[in-house]
Amino acid sequence: MEAAIGAASGLIGTVLNQLSDEFIQAYVASSELGLNARKIKDDLRFTQGLLHEAQRRGVSDNPGLKGLVQQLNTKANAAEDALDELHYFIIQDQIDGTKYAEPDLGDGLHSHARHGCHAVLHVVGNWLNCFSCLPMQDDGAESTNVISKSYNTINLDSSNDSPLDKLQFERVAMSKKIKSVIEEMHSLCDPVSQLLNLTPDQSNTTSVNLNRPMMGSTSVENKLYGRSAIFEQTIKDMTSGTYHSETLSILPIVGPGGIGKTTFTQHLYNDRRIEEHFTVRVWVCVSTDFDVLKLTQQIHSCIPVAEKEEINIVSGTTNLDQLQKSIANRLKSKRFLLVLDDVWKCDSDYEWNSLVAPFTKGEAKGSMVLVTTRFPKIEERINKGISPIKLQGLDPQEFFEFFQACVFGENKPNQQYSELLDIGKEIAQKLKCSPLAAKTVARLLKKHLSWEHWREVLENNEWQNQTNNDDIMPALKISYDYLPFHLKQCFSYFSLFPEDHRFKVIDINHFWIALGIIHSSYENKNYLEELVDNGFLVIEVNDLEGQCYAMHDLLHELSRSVSSQDCTNISSFSFSANEISQSIRHLAITIDDRYDENFKQEMAKLKSRIHIRDLRTLMIFRGYNEWIDEILKDTFSDIESIRVLFIPVNSTESLPKKFSKLLHLRYLKITSPKYCEVSLPSTLPIFYHLIFLDLQDWKGSSDLPKYFSRLVNLRHFIAGSKLHSNVPEVGKIERLEELKEFHVKKESVGFELEELGKLKELRGRLVVFNLEKVATKGEANKANLAFKTNLKVLGLVWGPKDPNCVTEPFADLDDDVADGLQPHDNLRVLGIRGHGGASPPSWLCCDMPMRYLEWLGFEGVSWGTLPPFGQLQYLKRLHLKRIAKVCLIGPDSGTGRNQSFMHLKEVVISDMPLLERWIVEPNCHLFPVLETIKCSDCPNLLSLPFFPECSVRCTQGIHCPNLHRLEITECPKLFVSPIPPAPALKYIKIEDTHRSVTFDGEAHWDWGVIFGGDENVLNLIGYIGALAFHNMGNVGSLICRHVSITSFTDLQKVTFPRELTSYEGSGMKSIKFIKCENLTVDGFDPLITAVSVKELWIMNGENYPGSIAADLLSEVARRTKQLPAGSFQLEKLAVNSISAVLVAPVCSHLAATLHTLSAALDERVESFTEEEEQALQLLASLQTLEFWNCQGLPCLPQGLHTLPSLSSLSVSHCPEIRSLPMGGLPTSIREIKVDSCSAKLHKLVRKLKRRNPELKVDA
User: Fold this and answer.
1) The Disease resistance protein winged helix domain covers which part of the protein (predicted)?
2) Portion of the chain with pLDDT greater than 70, in percent
């Protein structure tokens, strides 16, 4: 009921906003309609006020009122559609310079209409002149075909192009429609108002907290399932660890409803170790009533009386000060534990601090307050720097044990229930590891321990409909009931998206705005944060997508439940149309399974069951499929009121029949499959209300329809750069906020630089190409870049997009052109490429105005000096590439200031043939946060400030203390030895001929080269000379390619005379030697057989007469009995001699650990001996076996069928193999890859696939 009232109130608000438009107001008051617009608005405001009051009162059980409100909803929707349609034609008039939608007011009222017209001009922009180039129908043309709709279709013809279909305004039909729907809506206001006035106020009798069960400290569950690790750690922290030495620690325990927070805390509270550790223990159930006085009274009553305390003075008192003093006195020398269970609210820091104030006065150490809550906002308020315990669902295996215990008791079910347990596992998977969900379902299943009953529960999701307070959905819904209405409305629409969907802020922002739920991005961000604070969303961050929001599966089920009258998501072909409410306005389809004939029948039923024409949302979350999309196209052929449309297509024929009539559309997302030659719909430009156009997953043609710039309300164009750069006359879309690229094209109309000047709302990123075509500074000034305050990233490029097409910088026709392109001071990222002037733009010289730049890049410019980038205190990344004339980076670049480079993280210098030095003043600081240095193709470079002399380092401290990555390529004169101390270094790559690299290991420093983190790679390529290392204990991966090393002993040379093996717990996990000539086995043992090494590659070059792998592994075979316990336990082994591996001592040693074996470039193997076949059978853990480029190998091992774990077999470039093993393949095989082998082998593998459809074959 509340949702219906809220929706009606919102719709009336929308209609009021529409009626406030002066032109629409004039039309409503015109002689054709004769309506009293002012009285209608007053009555609507009165009704809206009553609806707000009804929400406040908590009106819920009045069926008559519910019916009237539903009717009011329907009529308000119709009124909104009618007025929105009128507004559409007002916009079209402004674009085309016509007067079709001008009201017939008579002479006396004509000026008022004109005033309304000018008001609309102010809103949508002056498009009269902008579109004067478009061919229009004669203004005096009258429609002779009046139909029931308020529009027809006409064409905008062009002499050389296909016509643009345009909707034609039908005055009589529009007038009748508006008058009818407004009168009908208006007629419902009085009865709704009267009934509301008669309905008693229930606001004081209905409260969420009445539905909250009061929980004590005694658990009804004798055993705690699935939390043993975190339980034991918490006990340890409370009794002897983290919290033991603190006076008072406050530990929040956070998680969604039904996850087991209270049960976990009850078991903590009653654990013997906790009882013995804390002298006083108090448990208080808080729920939604966070009253400091009441809570203090409850706590006080549970604490033993202190000696000589006068009980009568404080007993029953309401004086907070006396109660707090008494508590502090009673606990003065005692270690205590206070549990505040199920905290739902705490409105201020003051409230919280008032409650805990008496507990901070104790003398004993180790006292604690545990707070359980489902709301992250509560945790943030009370948290004082302690990491909370965040409870999630149980481990799947432990959850199933708990599930069984809920159904059968703590005794495990006997054999007679084995059939039920199979169904039980399927049911358990649906419960998302929620303990309360398990209890809810268990109560249902225990009623009948029969296969039929359990199957019915599984298929019908009956557990979701249980309504007891201790069932899962009511437990979750109580959180929903506690939300304010605006958050309830926002939450309900999440039901339309697929489970496990990751929401970007911008995506949900567009959706809510398109439906009119919110009106600004700022408002949206606040709502998302509120939903996070209330536990309905969680924030996730990953490298690929950045920050996004996710919703727990059970909360997604809740959103589907509470929105079922308005929203539905068809997520299975086996859905039933009869289960979908007839009143739905928002529909999503997220089918992933295979097509079912039932789907076609049910979709036909759905079409006749619901009002397809009135749908506001249609989102199809699946790729294009011909059969399914034909069904969908037929089902949704009559959609008209759509605001949000997500649709996959492979041609314009895939679109709904009335696609061109969707004049209410605000948000359109079209996707197409790869390699599909499909063009965007030609009618796209007539969606004048369109705010969001998402073509991010559009793989079709990058040509935009003609007249695209008629989309005058478009704000967000989510698409690739190529589509952005193809918008002609983009300046007409004045509200556009996104334009990734703009290409100046003097040869094409609508691509002049002045188009950018009209885009006042532009934000984010913009790259402008072909600036050499701009003739004068005056022309450059028209871009108005200095006024684009929200632009954060700017690229200025002289020349085309592809830098490979440019060999020399472009000289400006006017040397001052670049001066006219000064951006706003708010800019964060600036890149300039191809500028051919002798010096940088004037706004980059002297005092740089863009003080907050974080990224600066220059490429292919012809300047002799660089701008003073040392002035940029917040600079994080500096890229200098292909700058031919710069010889020195020095004080002239402003790099001598003390504040220079305080935030610099990355420096890239590339292809600067004359550059010799980068000089900084002696007092310049030492690049404290620099992480990455990349320097390449600078043949005359002698020094960089990152590599000072050792004497300088000793006096100033460590340079680049945070350096992670160092890459130097083809800089033969650059002095980098010894490499400076860098404790955080993870990756070094130095590629040069005749280069000797030494890692400094002087006793004064004793720091070494420490490799850690994700990459952990030491990559040695093309070294000639000695290698010296100090402290290789954390090296994770060593790769040597084309390195001249005489023996493995060289790799153990260190500045101090000790061996690598002396470093216990070495982190070396991967070692690869590729084409390293003259390698011997000297010193092999301590390096290769280290405990940590899990991956070994040994591939010698063509000039080596034997096999290094054979030599090394033969030594291992001789010494397997002497190897230390746990050593040489490889998981991955790649060699160029399979015979060297297949010897019994080696295979026996690797049997338990080796899961991947690769033989590559093995020119020696001709067959497998009996001994080798027997040795292969010892590799019981082998999962993947690969043969690559073994030209002489005639067959595969015949004993492959005996390998119990083998799941993947790969054979590539082995032309002599013409058969599969005689014994066949093991039953464990899941995948076979065959590439560039004999035709016979390919045929055999494909035949095997036909016999075993589940087998994955790539042949």
Assistant:
1) 496-558
2) 75
Beta 617-620 vs 644-648: how paired, if at all? Answer: parallel
| Mean pLDDT (whole number) for 677-688 | 91
Bridge partners (DSSP) listed for residue 1256: 1231
| Cβ atoms 663, 688 nearer than 8 A | yes
Residue range(s) defining the domain that contains residue 452: 396-465
Same domain, 480 and 497: yes
Give 1139-1143's long-range contacts (Cβ < 8 A, gap of 24+).
1139/1110, 1139/1164, 1139/1165, 1139/1172, 1140/1107, 1140/1109, 1140/1110, 1140/1112, 1140/1113, 1140/1114, 1141/1109, 1141/1113, 1142/1168, 1142/1171, 1142/1172, 1142/1173, 1142/1175, 1142/1176, 1143/1113, 1143/1114, 1143/1117, 1143/1171, 1143/1172, 1143/1175
Residue-level pLDDT at 1049? 42
- Give the residue from 1112, 1109, 1037, 1039 showing the smallest Cα distance to 1070: 1037
Q: Last residue of some domain: 357, 390, 423?
A: 390
- Do residues 102 and 26 touch, judged by C-beta distance below 8 A? no
> In sequence order, what are the residues at sequence separation of 6 or more whose Cβ sits closer than 8 angstroms to the Cβ of residue 264?
224, 227, 231, 253, 389, 391
Residues 453 and 497 in one domain: no
Q: Residue 1062 corresponds to which amino acid? A: S
For the CA atoms of 502, 507, 509, 515, the dihedral, rounded to the nearest 10 degrees, stands at: -110
- Residue 149 and residue 116 share a domain: yes
Phi and psi torsions of 31, nearest 5°:
-65, -25
pLDDT higher than 60, residue 1054 = no
**Is the domain of 421 the same as that of 379?**
no
Single pTM value for the model: 0.71
Q: What percentage of residues in the chain have a pLDDT greater than 90? A: 30
pLDDT in tens, 205-241: 444 444 566 788 888 888 898 898 899 999 999 998 7
Q: Domain boundary residue among 435, 465, 495?
A: 465
Tell me, yes or no, whether 481 and 461 share the same domain: no
- For residue 314, what is the domain's CATH number? 3.40.50.300
Alpha-carbon distance of 854 to 829, in angstroms, equals: 6
- Residue written as token pair 């918008």: 727
The answer as to whether 1158 is a domain residue is: yes
Residues 1062 and 1037: beta-carbon distance below 8 Å: no
Displacement of CA 1251 from its chain's centroid (Å): 41
1017-1043: per-residue pLDDT in tens?
Answer: 444 444 333 333 333 334 444 544 444
For 969, the 3-state DSSP assignment is: strand
The DSSP H or E segment spanning 1073 is strand 1070-1074
CA nearest neighbour of 219 among 267, 178, 154, 179: 267
Query: How far is 593 from 571, CA to CA, in rounded Å?
Result: 9
Q: How confident is the model at residue 261 (pLDDT cuts 50, 70, 90)?
A: very high
**Total count of residues recorded for the chain:** 1259
Burial 1183-1201 (b: 16+ CB within 10 A, else e): bbbbbbbbeebebbbbbbb
8-state DSSP, 235: H
- 385 touches 355 (CB < 8 A): no
- Give the number of other CB atoms < 10 A from CB of residue 915: 24
Please check whether residue 43 is in contact with residue 16, taking contact to mean a CB–CB distance below 8 angstroms.
Answer: no
Average pLDDT over residues 26-55: 68
Contact yes or no for 227/264 (Cβ under 8 A): yes
Q: For Cα atoms 501, 507, 510, give the angle at the middle one, nearest 5 degrees.
A: 140
Contact 684, 660 (CB under 8 A): no
Structural domain total, the chain: 5
The answer to whether residues 85 and 126 belong to one domain is: yes
Same domain assignment for residues 251 and 365: yes
- Please indicate whether residue 321 or residue 849 has the higher confidence score (pLDDT): 321
Sort 857 into a burial class: Cβ within 10 Å, 0-12 / 13-18 / 19+. Answer: middle
Q: Are residues 1179 and 1259 in the same domain?
A: yes
